Amino acid sequence: QVQLVESGGGLVHPGGSLRLSCAATGSIVSIYAMGWYRQGPGKLRNLVADITSDGRTNYAVSVKGRFTISRDNANNTVYLQMNSLKPEDTAVYYCFADRTRLIGGVLTDFWGQGTQVTVSA
User: Fold this and answer.
1) What tens digit of pLDDT does each residue of 96-120 get?
2) Cα separation of 118 and 1, whole Å?
């Protein structure tokens, strides 16, 4: 089975920075895309950013220019560098692995358990 283990969340002041990490472990052959969604209080879960195995990135408009996503394919790890954080960035951030090919040929998606990011003075 596959696990996505997230780290790096926490409490930060407005204007501060955090770096999220997510490592996928298990019987993985390849992962097409990895990235992050977030869900704020009383809100729907929305895409923050994702990155394909060949390095193509996609960002939500609200985070462009402030967040940077990167990926280590050899270690199936994705990172989200978050700068100039705002209170509206407060949310639970969920890592995902899209179209993950497992040993044996199964193709499926996986989610992490979520990590809380709180931006507050």
Assistant:
1) 999 999 998 888 999 999 999 999 9
2) 31
